Amino acid sequence: MNFKFLLTKAFSLILLLSVLLAIEHLHAADLADAGMGPNQGETVPVAIIFDVKKVNNPNSDPALHDVDIDLDFILRLHKDNIIIVEWGDGSPHTTVHGKAPNNIPFTHTYTTCTSGTCDYTVTLRTCASDISYLSMTDEGVQTFDISTNGLPGIEHLGLTSNNIGGTLDLTASKPLETLKISGNPITALNITNLTNLKTIFGNCEIPGVFDFSTCPALEDLRMPGNLFTNAIFDNPNLTNLEFHSNPLNGTIDLTNCPKLKTCGIGISHHGGGMAVNVDGLTELESLDLYESQVNANLDLSTCTNLRMIRISKGGGPPYTPISVDLSGLENLEIVVIGHYIEGSVDISQSLDLQRIQLGPKVDELILPTAGNVVLSSLYIVSIDGTSLPSSEIDAFRLLIPTNPHPGPQYPLIGYGGFKDHLIFTNTTFSPTATAHLNFLGTQGWTVSY
To answer: Same structural domain for residues 33 and 80?
Structure first.
């Protein structure tokens, strides 16, 4: 009898323990959903805090015309984990059991923003080192605070077209490969020793001399429209550089970027002129120095794979005429030489020419005598849109050894191998030059002037 009683008690005790364990499991789940950790009272750490400005009436803030009352962003994780987002408007937080490596989208509508602009502080909680990808584009983000933990596991960070200003310090994000921050008034960027960083898109407001050499893996660097006065480029893997509209000064030295294929460097009107050193860049295919105010002669003789060159505004103000050496470049297809390039331009070895545009200070153009030259257009433009003196036009000559047309050599053009059309903008001609142009029109040319 006692044995049966004891057995019944033992069974009841086991049943009670099972119920208690089930309750504890449910309680742990409730803690997780409430932003608590596996130990009672332990808070899931904050990974990111950011302030957003949402707009109910876009006309109330023209600077935020693309922002609405919805907040959307995408995360990826290195491994499965819980993500908790507190939206900052008093609404319940969102808890997601994120599965790696899938995209984890978040969206929230700020119903409390009934008119005008509204500010909210958003807190994202998870293990910071688990975040591999974050993209928030055009969401009205005003501040982006990762100072507590950093983002030590992130590989892709996209914050394009927000309103993040001040300093963005990413030195803790060692795995970072892609950074997209264009359209933000960021004034300081710290990417020192990010040895995995391959891509930067950053049209911001960053001033001064920037050192990119601490990011040796860089391949694609696009940072136009900043306030850079110069930069240090020691990037052996860089293939694409876009550096237009910066107030550059001094020499831009690209000789330590041997894999560079496309390069665009321009200067804002506040710059003081610059020189460009591309010596030895045998893989360079495109060099765009439009509005670059280059104030030193440009030697391109070692850029043997160059296919396109565009350059204008030689130095200044006051503008300094410069010369460009294109001799020996056999692969050139497009040559655009602006107002302040002077002297002789020798493209006699460029058998694949498709287009030439010349400024008025070029007084000699040496063209190839053989090859597949099909020139689409030859432009002669004038300084500041004013008409050129007839004497300057008459002084312009195409130096060629033979003339396939019967009759005398023609001062302006005499090479039938690229017969297509001529376009002259803002120019006037002497009667002799006009007669030559009219004659070319009778020979199948399209001539506009």
So the answer is: no
